[in-house]
Structures are given as C-alpha cells and as structure tokens.
UniProtKB/TrEMBL annotation:
It comes from Methyloceanibacter marginalis. Residues 3-110 form the DUF559 domain. Pfam families: DUF559. InterPro entries: DUF559, Endonuclease_DUF559_bact, Restrct_endonuc-II-like. This is DUF559 domain-containing protein.
Length: 112
C-alpha cells in the first residue's frame, strides 16, 4: 500500500519537489544517488539517499503548525532510529536559494 501511494506521489510532485529533484539528479556524478517519494519505516519521505543514509524532507508553511511539527518530530525519530539523518528544507528556500540548499546538503552528504 505504501508503495502505491509513493508511486502516486511521484506522479504528483509539487513544483518545489520537481525543482529540487532535477538538481539532486546532478549529484549522481559525485556518487550520491537519490530516490524520490520513498517508503521507509511506514513513512513516505520526499527524497532518500541510501549511501550515506540521508532523507530530505521538503516542507511547506503548514509544517510550522503545532500539529505538523509534532507529526514531523515523530517521523524524524522513527527515521533516525532506522539510521537516517534528516535534512529539512523549506519550500521558500528551494525557490529563493536553491544553490545554498544544495551546498548545505552536499556538506551533509560528505560528512555523514
């Protein structure tokens, strides 16, 4: 069931996810292979790189509400227990400073 939902989400990516995805694919040349909308530990994450174990979660403004923050914290704990580092990015960062986001991400990948 999670795989079917992930497949649907891959077909309906937001413009911010598409923009980030196109740039993440460029990191293959450096040895970092990302998958999009991946089911891990009954969660569907936006992007995952299995070596090193890094998950990217792209967040919109709704994630700043108390309910979303609590749900995100629970997901993060579950993914961290599974051995993943969580890299959270706001949609507006992708829109306004994608190069900066990728620079921070690359640093995280190289030091994980």
């Amino acid at each position: 069931m999670a795989n079917e939902l992930a497949r649907t989400l891959r077909k309906r990516m937001t413009r911010h996810e598409v923009r980030l995805w196109l740039r993440l694919r460029e990191l293959r040349a450096l040895g970092f292979h990302f998958r999009r909308q991946v089911a891990i530990k009954d969660c569907i994450v936006d992007f995952a790189c299995y070596h090193p174990r890094v998950v990217i979660e792209l967040d919109g403004s709704q994630h700043s509400t108390r309910d979303f923050a609590a749900r995100d914290a629970a997901r993060d704990a579950k993914l961290t227990t599974a051995g993943f580092k969580i890299f959270r990015v706001w949609n507006n960062e992708v829109e306004q400073n994608l190069d900066g986001v990728l620079e921070k991400l690359l640093h995280e990948l190289e030091h994980s």
